[in-house]
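Researcher: I'd like a candidate sequence for this fold, 194 residues long. If you have to choose between options at a position, lean toward the conservative one.
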């Protein structure tokens, strides 16, 4: 399983074998069952994770108990807020498995070991973290610039078949629309195809 994370990280730059060996020792496989939380909003996260298989959602709940999905985490991506993990701050978002998911988990101590002993790996992780923040900001801007139908089409283009894996009410939450609106959009798109 750890080869997946090595393959992912070495796309950015080559990692010395000594660092790969440390990373393999630190990466612990964990299975999240459908509906299980990696961590919850307002509680201090104990782990970050790299998704090997499955889909997770990152969301917060507002004062009216409405959930707002910020993003979905797919295979070969990180789910961690390094600031919250490293500084033991309460999480701003919850992370929950949408389906049974295989992940590699890392604790605060694991990241401290990486920082102390693995400079190349640390620089890659920091670069990925910065890219993730940029991607989230870009995604938020796009979601506000496009119509709901365009955003839905973009989601399907980027992640084909995702509408078969993620409940439609969660996709609607991600798009910041009501499930009934998503149903109308889907119906219109299907009529356009036929």
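Model: Candidate sequence:
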């Amino acid at each position: 399983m750890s080869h997946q994370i090595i393959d992912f990280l070495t796309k950015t730059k080559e990692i010395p074998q000594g660092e790969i060996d440390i990373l393999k020792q630190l990466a612990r496989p964990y299975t999240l069952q459908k509906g299980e939380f990696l961590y919850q909003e307002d509680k201090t996260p104990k782990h970050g994770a790299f998704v090997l298989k499955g889909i997770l959602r990152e969301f917060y709940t507002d004062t009216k108990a409405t959930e707002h999905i910020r993003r979905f985490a797919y295979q070969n991506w990180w789910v961690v807020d390094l600031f919250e993990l490293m500084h033991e701050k309460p999480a701003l978002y919850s992370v929950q498995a949408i389906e049974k998911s295989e992940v590699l988990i890392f604790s605060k101590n694991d990241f401290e070991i990486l920082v102390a002993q693995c400079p190349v790996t640390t620089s890659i992780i920091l670069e990925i973290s910065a890219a993730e923040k940029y991607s989230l900001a870009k995604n938020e801007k796009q979601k506000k610039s496009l119509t709901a139908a365009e955003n839905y089409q973009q989601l399907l283009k980027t992640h084909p078949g995702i509408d078969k894996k993620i409940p439609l009410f969660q996709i609607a939450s991600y798009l910041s629309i009501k499930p009934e609106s998503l149903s109308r959009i889907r119906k219109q798109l299907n009529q356009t195809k036929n």
